[in-house]
Write a structure and sequence with these properties.
The protein is α/β, with parallel strands linked by helices and 431 residues long. It is 27% helix and 22% strand. The chain is globular. The two termini are 30 Å apart. The structure holds zinc ion (ZN). Zinc ion binds next to loops.
Length: 431
């Protein structure tokens, strides 16, 4: 038995001084703080549930030079994230069949510092493979409505999305940009040119497509990495009609401002793009209202060469932001400035993504849950030094920023995560 005490334990029913009793990797009891004198006493350092990041691109095998299981999960643990769900693409093969899932699990085996689950992929022509892949334990299926950036994971048409939804009763997570509204743009180091090539209308149109597919099929559809706040009324109206649609957003859309992205700074390139500060304000409001259900990283790194840091050409650079280690302090820094308590951040980044994926034993400090715990100093500050990140490639738009909130220690199922920990397990979907 291990007991971890803190004067600030964040439980689903509120923050309080408590002693968390851990047995066999699970939370066996939550007692008054003064009931135990021994154990690990964190004092005023907060004890949070381990965060759940349902949107991580690990890229291994196949593009392991971009990111791999050892580095991604070590970075996750250092950032207070104890569960990740890996996206089906950018690895080779992509996770579009049971065989491909086995290849990916074999690659991850023995390397993971946190618990790892997998999304499957829905691509043109694999609808008949989805039921078996779902049975094999993926948490649902990702589909792209626009070019994904890699040839082996093509987008689906509206008809193909509906075919996939008809094939299996699963959660579908959708990259919602409509190719009809995306514009090619010439080589340019100007962020404004890139932003203009991916207008908000592309998200509005694709989200309409996804909502209609959810409405017709009755299936659950989740909008990934929502950037365009103008789509929020579409989602609200659909939900009011009983359509099963949810949405997430990411730290970069909430905290970065297109008006302040330097030209040539391709570390800020992601799709959909980061928009302006007024847009971010509306995303924060939707998060506060519960219309956006969770905040996840969309950690999607690549090599510095593919980011084209040499030329700063936004047209040629890979789109993706590396942030799995930084999401908690990035969000907490802005949330605090906007008057949100830390409990809100825990809800957005731990409990709600766990609920999205159907993981009741994750993302909460509650009796019976896994003892995934984080000691977090909400008042400490640090300057982001990319070379102190555990990401494989130290390229991040947060470099040099001063952030609030220090992850002091992380426990996975009751065991403290250390540099060489490889105690992560594979998670599979439970019905
Ligand atoms: Zn992604």
């Amino acid at each position: 038995m291990v007991v971890i005490r803190s004067r600030r334990v964040f439980t689903p029913t509120g923050e309080r001084a408590a002693a968390v009793e851990v047995r066999h990797g699970q939370i066996a009891g939550i007692h008054p703080y003064d009931d135990f004198s021994g154990g690990i006493d964190l004092g005023d350092t907060a004890l949070l549930p381990g965060l759940v990041d349902t949107h991580v691109h690990v890229n291994e095998p196949g593009r392991t030079e971009w990111e791999g299981f050892a580095t991604a999960t070590r970075a996750a643990a250092a950032g207070g994230v104890t569960t990740i769900i890996d996206m089906p693409l950018n690895s080779l093969p992509p996770t579009v069949s049971v065989d491909a899932l086995a290849v990916k699990q074999a690659a991850a085996s023995g390397q993971i510092a946190v618990d790892v689950g997998f999304w499957g992929g829905a691509i043109p022509g694999n609808a008949d493979k989805l039921p078996d892949l779902h049975e094999a334990g993926v948490f649902g299926f990702k589909a792209f409505l626009a070019d994904s950036g890699v040839p082996e994971f093509p987008p689906v048409s509206s008809a193909e999305l509906r075919e996939a939804l008809a094939a299996v009763d699963a959660l579908f997570v959708v990259h919602a940009e409509d190719p009809g509204h995306l514009h090619d743009h010439a080589s340019s180091a100007a962020y404004a040119d890139f932003l203009a090539s991916r207008p908000a209308e592309a998200e509005h149109a694709a989200i309409t497509t996804a909502i209609e597919a959810a409405r017709v099929s009755g299936r659950r559809v989740h909008i990934l990495h929502l950037s365009a706040a103008g789509a929020l009324p579409l989602i609200a109206a659909a939900r009011a009609d009983g359509v099963r649609v949810t949405a997430e957003t990411c730290p970069h859309y909430l905290t970065l401002d297109a008006g302040h992205i330097p030209d040539g700074a391709t570390e800020f390139k992601c799709c959909p793009p980061i928009r302006d500060a007024a847009n971010a304000d509306l995303l924060w409001r939707a998060l506060a209202d519960g219309l956006i259900t969770c905040v996840v990283s969309d950690h999607s790194p690549c090599t510095p060469e593919l980011k084209r840091r040499d030329t700063g050409d936004f047209a040629a650079a890979w789109g993706g932001i590396a942030s799995v280690q930084l999401g908690l302090p990035v969000i907490w820094t802005s949330a605090r400035d906007r008057g949100h308590p830390l409990a809100d951040v825990v809800d957005w980044m731990a409990r709600r993504p766990a609920d999205l994926a159907g993981l009741p034993m994750k993302g909460r400090i509650a009796v019976g849950a896994d003892a995934d715990l984080v000691a977090f100093d909400p008042d400490g500050t640090f300057v982001v030094d990319p070379h102190r990140l555990h990401h494989k490639n130290p390229v991040t738009p947060y470099a040099g920023k001063t952030l609030r909130g220090l992850v002091r220690r992380t426990w996975l199922r009751g065991r403290e995560v250390a540099d060489n920990s490889r105690d992560g397990r594979f998670l599979t979907r439970k019905d």
